[in-house]
Amino acid sequence: MPVTDADVIEALRPVEDPELHRSIVDLGMVKAVAVEGNRASVLIALTVPGCPLRNEISRRVTDAATRLDGIDGVDLEFTHMSEDELSALRTRLHGDPASTAGSTPAHGHAEGRAIPFADPASRTRVLLISSGKGGVGKSSVTTNLSVALARRGHSVAVIDADVWGFSIPRMLGIDRPPVVLDQMLLPPEAYGVRCISMGFFAAEDQPVIWRGPMLHKALEQFLTDVYWDDPDFLVVDLPPGTGDISISLSGFLPRSEVYVVTTPQPAAQRVAQRAAFMAQKVNLEVKGVIENMAWFTGDDGRRYELFGAGGGRELADRLEVPLVGQIPLVPALREGADTGHPIVATEPDGEAARAFGLIAGRIDDELAPTRRFHPELKLI
Ligand SMILES: Nc1ncnc2c1ncn2[C@@H]1O[C@H](COP(=O)(O)OP(=O)(O)O)[C@@H](O)[C@H]1O
Ligand SMILES: [Mg+2]
């Protein structure tokens, strides 16, 4: 039997848009299909002109169509969606702006859309990674922990809320800004982690001057106007210390779990404690301590405690929370951070990656909230 146009469409149905993670057929991106002999021509409407993922989409479509018996080649043409098509798409993904019903919330910040993670029915666990001061490895932990959670099969999103020292896009090797789809931001993705950063909206060599109310608004927009698609985990890299961002986030995301990163020396530990007290002041739960740069393993196999020892344990005991894990000092971790290749992905069997794997496992299995939120059990 010759291949029909309908067969090609069925073959394309499992192909997902790399950014939206939905079928390109269901998204309305497959505009036309024609089969002639053993070739198929396909017209694809991209969400935005010059879509950065066009090559990836081409590859996926060609692979899927040529897997059909009787199709040896694909002629691809591209167009882009009209404004009406984009609005319809955004409504499907983010709800109807005209609706005020809970299940299909108005979709943009400006239109009064609620923060999806604040909903008691939200399945997303929000992990706030904090520290008393900069340079202890908070962003390195955020990045590698996120990749480790993704490697466990979870969908993971990151907000780089360290407005003065944003570094997550660089650490994840992301060098393109989010795609804007009818005012909805599609976060770029790397290593299975989607990411939004203030860094996308500020030039790297320019000072960022945000006042409290502006920060509050910007964060709120990140939470509402980005297409997060209900991830399992939202990991937030907080700015060091305490302050406006933590207060805003505690209001936006009251169910967040705080993890405090510290280094092993007693002095660092006292500074880290301030971040923990701050969290408690704004009613956020500190769930655990992560000790970074805990030791360096020499070529002789011995562990050298370059920055002292015991700080993580001491802080955890004082806060009465678990010491979730200890990460060794590994030069390749820094190199990976500088070049956008997280060590958890590039050296998965190395000492550092194994430490992050253990931490991800404990957060996933042991530290999951006991109170589960079932949408079907919602009162009202
Ligand atoms: N365990 C580690 N081993 C080696 N280098 C590390 C480690 N943790 C962090 N670094 C490096 O230390 C520097 C500061 O880490 P970073 O994650 O940027 O800290 P913060 O976000 O707390 O300011 C970076 O250059 C980073 O690559
Ligand atoms: Mg940082």
Query: What structural class should be given to the helix and strand makeup?
Result: alpha/beta
N-to-C span: 56 Å
CATH uppermost class of the largest domain:
Alpha Beta
- The CATH homologous superfamily name of the largest domain equals P-loop containing nucleotide triphosphate hydrolases
Give the overall shape, derived from the CA principal axes: globular
Tell me the series of helices and strands, N- to C-terminal: HEEHEHEHEHEEEEHEHEHEEEHEHHH
Cα-atom radius of gyration: 23 Å
* Number of DSSP helical runs: 12
**Main sheet?**
8 strands, mixed
Which ligands does the model contain, each kind named once?
Answer: adenosine-5'-diphosphate, magnesium ion
CATH topology group of the largest domain: Rossmann fold
How many domain modules? 2
* Strand percentage: 15-25%
- Count of beta strands: 15
Stretches where pLDDT is under 50 for at least 5 consecutive residues are 101-106
Helix content: 25-40%
